[in-house]
Write the structure tokens for this entry.
Amino acid sequence: MNPAVIMPTYARSDLAFVRGEGAYLYDAAGRHYLDFCSGIAVNVLGHAHPHLVHTIKEQADKLWHCSNLYHIPGQERLAERLVKASFADMAFFCNSGAEAVECALKMARKYHHAVGQPERFRVVVMENAFHGRTLATVSAGGQEKHVKGFEPLVDGFDRVPFGNTEAVRSAIGPQTAAILVEPIQSEGGIRVAPPGYLSELRALADEHDILLVFDEVQSGLCRTGHTFAYEWFRSVPDVIALAKGLGGGFPIGCCLATARAAQGMTIGTHASTFGGNPLGMAVGNAVLDVLLAEGFTRAILHTSRLLTAALGQIVQTYPGILVEVRGLGLMLGLRCSISNTVLCDRLQRTGLLTAVSGDNVVRLLPPLIIGENEIEEAIDIIDRTCKQLTDEYDHNV
Ligand SMILES: *Cc1c(COP(=O)(O)O)cnc(C)c1O
């Protein structure tokens, strides 16, 4: 291996995997790891899911790519299914979360252009937000470590504290085009929108004729136990950005919108070479075959209750290590009283993969197909790791 040929933008662990099956990843030595990271909420059906493997092989024999200069039946089918499962009327397909958010931002400007208010281009965004790594989306996210040295940023973002409706109200002015918010802040530390907040934002958006945009790149596609996280909050957006889980590991992004919000997106206004190509769309449709099947979300809610309850017990048992468990469905965070990176490293050494995020949180984002055995195993690893860490910390005082 020659890691020097890769730009050193990632803090990587020493592990390298050669194979995956279900909720497990295997390294070259054959050691297995229980994957509660899922490629950051991507492998919703785990690894090497038979239906996805079969579908991509079959499609690979027929047609991988053709341009959006032509009709792509699989794209129309995936759009139709996403529209039917959501508030939306139409979809635009791209290849990543950042591009899906970028499409939403462009759409917000274009909407106001189309309705004769071109002065409206600003977007109210939240503190501790994350929307991707393109220039516009780091500008929207605004985190110091993501923007430093990349200035000048894209203009037009007004940042307010997450969860504070009055702050949003005050930030809305004659140039405001949209409100952009994650129903659950993911990189920000699995912070769930407080009760009433998202419906208050809906009312504000209606009052000012601006668009309400939800970034569901991480929380969408059944991650929270509903098809979309907004269903938890009884607040319906005009636009949502999707990506991570949609391709189950194949890079697919998607922006869903009402026809009203998308009215400016006419011929020639936006495009993506790879977006919505036949190979990707075949996989996306196969992912939806499982996610939209009767009873799938109900099973996730059941799994979530078991996992959350067991984690709650562990938090009580090890107050010197953990502060709380939070999140919805299988998008869970353990807020730590020790360093989250220390806990994450130690869990990994004991065979459980997790991901850190802001606010000193260790994220648990298992494949949505896990069952009671995987939960038991994960809980056993977390319990043993916390016990060991407690012993070490006690020993050191
Ligand atoms: C991961 C993520 C993104 C960015 O997605 P990429 O595919 O990395 O561009 C945007 N928003 C949220 C909420 C995310 O979790």
Notes: Residues 96-98, 101, 130-132, 182, 186, 215, 217-218, 243-244 surround pyridoxal-5'-phosphate (CB under 6 Å). The longest strand covers residues 322-328. The chain is about 35% helix and 20% strand. Residues 50 and 331 are 24 Å apart (CA to CA).
